[in-house]
Amino acid sequence: MTVKLYADEDCPGPVVRALRAAGFDVVSQRDVKRGAADDDVLRLSHLAERVLVTRDLGFGKLAVLRQLPAVGVVILRLRGPGDWLSRAPRVVAAMQKLGESAVGAISTIDWNAIRTRPLPRER
Q1: Interval 50-82: pLDDT, tens
Q2: Residue 19 maps to which CATH number?
């Protein structure tokens, strides 16, 4: 089974398109409701049973510190030169490697590593 993804509004278009081209099932927040509050986005991704992909560290805080329900959160931290078209292959490769391990976890993708830790159990 392939992990289903929910792209936050700040997830760059080239990344969403590259993930879809690689065979990932991706719903984009841009197509659902623009300008939604972060806790609403996390709730929507949870209700849709999809791992949230974002550049916003705030979602990690919502899922870990506030313990809001989440299927999983993947945070993109790809800094440096170049545009998102050139960064998208790194995201695709990392998501292919993460696969189902993105479920139940908060993961961070950067140029050198993929870090994953379990989400807190729901109360």
Answers
A1: 999 999 999 988 988 888 999 999 999 999 888
A2: 3.40.50
